[in-house]
Amino acid sequence: MSIIEVNHVTKEYKLGQIHSLKTTALNQWRRLTGQPVEERAPFKALDDVNFSIEAGEVVGIIGHNGAGKSTILKLLANISKPSSGSISVKGKVAPLIEVGAGLIGDLTGRENIYLNGAILGISKAEITRKFDEIVAFAELEEFIDTPIKRYSSGMQVRLGFSIATSVESDILIVDEVLAVGDLAFQRKCFDRMEDLIKRQGKTVLLVSHNIRQVQRLCSRVIMLDHGRINLDGTPQAVCDSFYEQSDEKIKASTVLAPTRTDTSGELELMELYFLDHDDQRTDRLSYNHDCVVHFRIRALQRLDEVTFGFGFHTTDFLYLTTHNSEEQLHISHLPPGEHEIVCKIARLPLLPGVYSLRFGVTAGQAAGGIFYGENLKHFQVVGDVPITVREGFFALDAHWLLEGREVAEIPAISPNTCHICNAVHNRSIFEEK
Ligand SMILES: Nc1ncnc2c1ncn2[C@@H]1O[C@H](COP(=O)(O)OP(=O)(O)OP(=O)(O)O)[C@@H](O)[C@H]1O
């Protein structure tokens, strides 16, 4: 029997109720002035959702903003009820869903720990036994007798996470809240979650926009799309598909993507484009094929000792690599006017996805450079990647050897002639004799 079962669950909200004050005032005004009052149809945050989870599974829930991720967690934590369908949860749930949820502002950290324990059905004796550990993990020793309303949101999350993960429970439900803490604390939470999962075999449901984190922690991932389950499968398959869909969305909106440039006024970037391996202008480059980046610039004055550089970054500004002309192209001076600079890239090693380009120019002694721009041009890398390459942004050109030889060259069974009976045995039989 599954530990969690979600059967045909639909959750409806009335859209107008989200901004209730504003909507009420607006409707009142319309009634007074004889205008039709806007009545909106109920909106389905979840639409006929079905899944079950076995004990010990670690399930990530991903999807775009408003896909229904938090709504599912709230239903499972019994914070809200489905409009139709049924949910069965067997076991004690420790939810960590909203910053400050379950904490009472006027009570101190100490009082909140006991209160939360009671809500989770934990005895006072157990809480007393775990108290120091909870406070130490949350790093709140100094503030434990301060009312929670004086805590920052990060401090509240630390306390909430520490309580939820210290008490005995069967199912841990964690929403995006972890992103609120500082990086060092996020790391600590991540390590604790790994420990709960790997050593204690706890059932965990995790909502996160941090797909890499989901991929690392989870054994299964559910992707939601407009309140429906779009995919349910292995982290690799579901996260890959999510990346592909996000890349497509980004690609579709890239024309309007803002560029970021900073120039001293000595140089202008006139044009920037790629040529593919067939010398065609394109924004679609092929993985593992040669390509060329063209930069057309205008020097507004004579420039001395010029170096060009460019790099690739992801659409969320993770810098991947840079290359500069310093060692290959010594430009002692560049006269005013237009110039064309070309950089040839051999066997583009970027894995399929959407990326963007940055470009910079330094001249003379100017420490900060005379031109720098990023997000200048989006491009897509397409192509088939060998199954040896699984994740990340680059494919290494690498080869495996077994005892100094390419594995493929060694026959599965190596025949040897037996010196006793003259028959051909495979190597292991021969060696045993
Ligand atoms: N209390 C509510 N009243 C009305 N609508 C709501 C309420 N809670 C959520 N919704 C709506 O339901 C939809 C799903 O919301 P939910 O918070 O589950 O999305 P999510 O996938 O967690 O999004 P995000 O990634 O932005 O946190 C959204 O359109 C949201 O506006």
Search tags:
433 residues; alpha+beta; Rossmann fold; Coagulation Factor XIII, Chain A, domain 1; 7-stranded mixed β-sheet; 6-stranded mixed β-sheet; globular; binds adenosine-5'-triphosphate
Itemize the secondary structure elements and their pairings:
Elements: E1 4-14, H1 20-32, E2 42-53, E3 58-63, H2 69-76, E4 84-89, E5 93-96, H3 109-119, H4 124-138, H5 153-166, E6 171-174, H6 183-198, E7 203-207, H7 211-217, E8 220-225, E9 228-233, H8 235-253, E10 260-263, E11 267-275, E12 281-282, E13 284-286, E14 291-299, E15 303-314, E16 319-324, E17 331-334, E18 337-345, E19 353-363, E20 371-382, E21 401-402, E22 405-406, E23 415-417, E24 424-426, H9 427-432
Parallel strand pairs: 3-7, 3-8, 5-6, 6-7, 13-20
Antiparallel strand pairs: 1-2, 1-4, 8-9, 10-20, 11-12, 11-14, 14-18, 15-16, 15-17, 15-19, 19-20, 21-22, 23-24
Helix pairs in contact: 3-4, 4-5
This protein binds adenosine-5'-triphosphate.
The site of adenosine-5'-triphosphate has 12 residues, from helix 2.
